Amino acid sequence: MQLLRPSPGECVDRQTILRIKIQEGAKTGLDCRHFGDEDGALQLYLERTWFQAATSDRVEQLQLFSAELKKVNQSLWDLENKIRNLKSLSSEERDERTKDIVSIALAIPELNDERARLVAVINSLFGLTAQEKLYCSILGPVPSRSTKQPTRSASSE
Hints:
It is a single chain. It contains five helices and two strands; from the N terminus they run H-H-H-H-H-E-E. The chain is an all-alpha fold. It has one domain (8-141).
């Protein structure tokens, strides 16, 4: 997230994560007011910085993509919890669950790619086209799902 002017996609992504934290924290009785405060501050920032000129069509699209993004982030949350639970098993039990571990490990990058795609789509609703997420493998940048190859950047997340 940029320090001075985060994109709408990054803000919405953060909001979905905060809302998941609030939801999950409520299940265990944790005080999550600080997450709500941050969510409110992000909403105010979005309204003042990005939403003022938004058309009703753009708002409707934003709501749809935000809901998709929340589902992706919830899936990531759930998979990460599964990994945490698997970590608590003995090494013998983990050996027996190798297929589960590999399946989860392979699903996480796929979901992160979808998450990055949704952030980019939300940003495009506001005319922003800069690529914010860049994942590299030892073989070089991971190709995007679009037909256009990403440009190399000196910074990565």
